[in-house]
Amino acid sequence: MWTRQVLVALLAASVVGVQLVGAPAVQADPDPKLQVTGVTLSRTSVAVSGLNTVPVQVRVKGGYDSTDPSLADMPLNVWLQRTSGSGTPIILLSTDLPRVSGTTQNGEWAGPVYVPSTANGKFTVIGVTTGPHAVYESGPMPPDPTPVAGPTLTVTGSNLPRITAKVTPGIVPFGSGFTITWAVTNAATGKPYGTRIRVLLGTDNQCDQNVGGDLPYTSTSGIVSKAYPASAADALVCLRIPGNQVEIASLRLFVARPGIVSAVPSKTSAPVGAIVPVTGNVLGAPAPCPVLLQRLYGASQWRGVSTGVVRTSGRFTVFAQPAYKGLIPYRVYFAACGRFQLGISKTFSIRGL
């Protein structure tokens, strides 16, 4: 059973362009006051096309062991987890389900879960939590879902949205702004939907939470562009197509950065065989990417002689060891790592004595 923390992470990751790997399955810690005797769905299958969502009614039977009058209108949320299929959402979450009959201690709660086309697969009800869900998006984590061996919903999605992004310039220099031209098209046809689509353009936590962001409309060609300041070049940026509780689709990315490397030896001369620390920096601090100290052999062949790792400060240390008497050229090589491009420091020399 997933913990609530993992489920929230999975819900945030249930969008195009984001992958959550290795989420641990651990013992649940549900709210002991919440008792669930059954969950039903109004249908077992649904077909959804394009940017639409289709409501499927959910009904929960159970109760909450409390006489606190402030909880009289407490809603519940039902969680469905993907069990098969190729769609992008991992989790579907119902709306805040109001109590429709009975009492808080013994009642029924009902309402919809909105299913996007991108679900496209099978989802099984796995648990129920107390709501409203919105209070948990930025607050402390509540107890984990009360486990339920619930029904399965089969989703057949068609004309799914595809989101692409063109960043200009393609590799964003440090200290410079950039522009992203986003496009939303029908993945089945490769063409736009032909209508203006409201999207959310966000940075940083706006890509995971409902905490603001720009809400423009695309053109009828599915295009929307935005100019970003230099400060956004190290933040997550995204386009999200809002849904109800779960996004219809989104794309998140970090822009590409150049590999800018500097390196300085602690000594410019040392006896043959002596260890000479070489310290340096990679702009943007791409930790823990590797760096390689290279020595020039002959007229043009560079070979690695020492390895290091970029620390969170951006700094690194490698070690030279003069192999013969005379001036020996060195450089630090930074291989492309994540969004950081290949970079090579200026050549420096250490004289072997």
Description:
This protein has 353 residues and is mainly β. It has one helix at 4-13, and strands at residues 34-41, 45-49, 53-64, 76-85, 91-93, 99-102, 107-116, 121-130, 146-147, 152-158, 161-168, 178-186, 200-203, 223-228, 237-241, 249-253, 261-265, 269-270, 276-282, 290-297, 301-309, 315-320, 326-334, 343-344, 348-352. The strands form 6 sheets. Strands 2, 4, 5, 8, 9 and 10 form a 6-stranded mixed beta sheet that branches.
Short account of what is shown:
The chain has 353 residues and is an all-beta fold. It has 1 helix and 25 strands.
Keywords:
353 residues; mainly beta; 6-stranded mixed sheet; elongated
What's the number of helices?
A: 1
Element-by-element helix/strand order = HEEEEEEEEEEEEEEEEEEEEEEEEE
Q: Please give the largest β-sheet.
A: 6 strands, mixed
Percent of residues in helices comes to under 10%
Average pLDDT rating: 89
C-alpha termini separation: 65 Å
Strand runs, count:
25
Q: Kindly estimate the percentage of residues that lie in beta strands according to DSSP.
A: over 45%
Low-confidence stretches: 1-10, 12-27
Bulk shape: elongated
* Radius of gyration from the alpha-carbon trace, in angstroms: 27 Å
Structural class designation: mainly beta
Oligomer: single chain
Architecture blueprint of SSEs:
Elements: H1 4-13, E1 34-41, E2 45-49, E3 53-64, E4 76-85, E5 91-93, E6 99-102, E7 107-116, E8 121-130, E9 146-147, E10 152-158, E11 161-168, E12 178-186, E13 200-203, E14 223-228, E15 237-241, E16 249-253, E17 261-265, E18 269-270, E19 276-282, E20 290-297, E21 301-309, E22 315-320, E23 326-334, E24 343-344, E25 348-352
Parallel strand pairs: 2-10, 18-25
Antiparallel strand pairs: 1-3, 3-7, 4-5, 4-8, 6-7, 8-9, 8-10, 11-12, 12-14, 13-15, 15-16, 17-19, 19-22, 20-21, 20-23, 23-24, 23-25
